[in-house]
């Protein structure tokens, strides 16, 4: 092989190597761009059904964006955010939990909006028939052995229930019958399975559960409105997408979905 041929061969090899490297870079870059942007939304348990639908429609309206729902009692979710959990949006059933995060500068206050309201009700197992309590005062009867509420420390539905029972002068009388649940969904499960004689849930949960297994005994008056705030979490690394999600929830379509599940306007 003469010198010129050798040089041409080496040059050809170098061109091929460079092209391969450029191709690899383009492929890697495309792979990054194709990765969906994921936002994590921490939402109160009572929002489970509504936010499942909202997340699906948001994803459809925002191709390339994925929504992960983190559902639990609002107090539990607040503590997760305080501990540094990578959350982008917080939707709470409690104004107080949102306020506590605001005081620690953990939410973007300009993004905070009230987006829904709810009603507290007492539900009882269907199988107990005429023995069921029909009013708060009936909870003191000897036939009522177990009553479940959400843990007031972590589930707003439990806080509202305790406040209502205290205002009615019944809390001290029935405190020994109380069984604490982690969240509103667990309260409803206890009633559905007949493990308790009564429980306190939001009407949205009562309307969307296994309605043949329990019935609504009465509406429970509360001392403060049950309103739901939503906000972007300050440490979020996806604030633009998080704000778009908040706008979707508070917009016309988000409100239609919430209304479908029984939530009222804020």
Describe the sheet with the most strands.
5 strands, mixed
Bin the helical content.
40-55%
Please tell me the total number of domains: 2
CATH architecture of the largest domain: 3-Layer(aba) Sandwich
- Specify Rg, calculated over alpha carbons: 26 Å
Overall number of strands: 10
> Which strand order does the major sheet show?
2-1-3-10-4
What is the CATH T-level topology of the largest domain? D-Maltodextrin-Binding Protein, domain 2
CATH class of the largest domain: Alpha Beta
Overall mean pLDDT: 90
Overall 3D shape:
elongated
- The CATH superfamily of the largest domain appears as Periplasmic binding protein-like II
Sheet-strand content, in percent, reads 15-25%
Task: Describe the protein's architecture and organization.
- The protein is an alpha/beta fold and 266 residues long.
- The chain has 2 domains: 34-117 and 225-260, Periplasmic binding protein-like II (D-Maltodextrin-Binding Protein, domain 2); 119-220, D-Maltodextrin-Binding Protein, domain 2.
- It has helices spanning 3-34, 48-61, 74-82, 95-103, 156-167, 171-174, 184-192, 203-208, 239-250, 252-260; strands spanning 37-44, 65-72, 89-91, 113-118, 120-125, 147-150, 178-181, 198-202, 214-220, 226-232.
- Strands 2-1-3-10-4 form a 5-stranded mixed beta sheet. A 5-stranded mixed beta sheet has the order 7-6-8-5-9, with helices on both faces.
């Amino acid at each position: 092989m003469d010198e010129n041929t050798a040089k041409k061969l080496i040059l050809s090899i170098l061109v091929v190597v460079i092209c391969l490297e450029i191709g690899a870079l383009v492929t890697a870059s495309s792979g990054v761009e194709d990765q969906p942007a994921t936002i994590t939304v921490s939402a109160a348990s009572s929002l489970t059904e509504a936010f499942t639908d909202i997340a699906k429609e948001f994803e459809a309206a925002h191709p390339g964006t994925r929504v992960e729902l983190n559902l639990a009692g609002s107090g539990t979710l607040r503590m997760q955010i305080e501990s540094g959990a990578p959350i982008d949006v917080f939707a709470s059933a409690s104004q107080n939990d949102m306020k506590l995060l605001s005081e620690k500068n953990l939410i973007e206050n300009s993004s905070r909006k009230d987006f829904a309201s709810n009603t507290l009700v007492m539900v009882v197992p269907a199988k107990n028939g005429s023995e069921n309590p029909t009013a708060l005062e009936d909870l003191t009867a000897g036939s009522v052995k177990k009553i479940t509420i959400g843990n007031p420390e972590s589930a707003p539905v439990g806080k509202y229930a305790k406040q209502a029972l205290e205002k009615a002068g019944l809390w001290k009388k029935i405190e020994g019958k109380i069984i604490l649940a982690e969240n509103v969904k667990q309260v409803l499960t206890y009633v559905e399975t007949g493990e308790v004689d009564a429980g306190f849930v939001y009407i949205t949960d009562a309307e969307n559960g296994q309605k043949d297994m329990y019935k609504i005994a009465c509406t429970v008056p509360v001392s403060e409105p049950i309103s739901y705030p939503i906000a972007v979490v300050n440490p979020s690394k996806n604030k633009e997408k998080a704000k778009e999600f908040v706008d979707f929830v508070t917009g016309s379509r988000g409100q239609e979905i919430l209304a479908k599940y029984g939530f009222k306007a804020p």
